[in-house]
Amino acid sequence: MSSVSVNHPGRRDPRRGALEHATLALLRALVPPARDNQGAADFLVREVGTAGAELEWVVVRPDTLHDGDLPGSTPGYALHETLTSSLFKPDRTSRANVARFLCELACDAGVWERWKGEMPVIVDEA
Fold first, then answer.
1. pTM of the model
2. What pLDDT is stored for residue 75 in this prediction?
3. Euclidean distance between CA atoms 103 and 71, whole angstroms
4. Do residues 60 and 98 touch, judged by C-beta distance below 8 A?
5. How many CA atoms lie within 13 A of 53 on its CB side?
6. Which among 16, 59, 62, 126 is placed 20 to 30 Å from 77, CA to CA?
7. Averaged pLDDT in 10-residue chunks for the chain of 126 residues
8. What is the dihedral of CA 122, 88, 14, 108, to 10 degrees?
9. What is the 3-state secondary structure (H, E, C) of the chain?
């Protein structure tokens, strides 16, 4: 699991503005886990790759995490191949929805096949 602060190394995400680039650079300089998350994504895409790799991977990128409202009231989730919002106007993603998707990746071969080697963004449905 990562976050939407991680850019897809293959430049598949929409371009971020200058202020977002500067914010991410500062974040990565000051917060080692932010730098490590980007480094891990870079390594997986560039070094491990997807074609015939012995190691299969998925980088799940939730947007702003929240605990959800009342138990059982968490909306569904949507998966996107690229970023859907900016750092300054984020979407929301419940921790329960991230857990559901991670369980689906682990238990449903079809879901794994669809997303392996990808960096899906997960957000709550409106």
1. 0.88
2. 83
3. 18
4. yes
5. 15
6. 16
7. 89 87 93 94 89 86 86 82 92 94 97 95 92
8. -10
9. CCCCCCCCCCCCCCCCCHHHHHHHHHHHHHCHHHHHHHHHHHHHHHHHCCCCCCCCCCCCEECEEECCCCCCCCCCEEEECCCCCECCECCEEEHHHHHHHHHHHHHCHHHHHHHCCCCCEEEECC
Could you tell me if 123 and 77 are in contact, meaning their C-beta atoms sit under 8 angstroms apart? yes
- Beta strand 64-66 with 77-80: parallel, antiparallel or unpaired? unpaired
Q: Is 49 left (phi over 0), alpha (psi -120 to 50) or beta?
A: left
Place of tokens 């202020």: 19
Which amino acid is present at 97?
N
* Residue 49, pLDDT score: 86
Token pair listed for 14: 């929409």
Residue bearing tokens 């689906």: 104
Burial of 20 (0-12, 13-18, 19+ CB in 10 A): middle
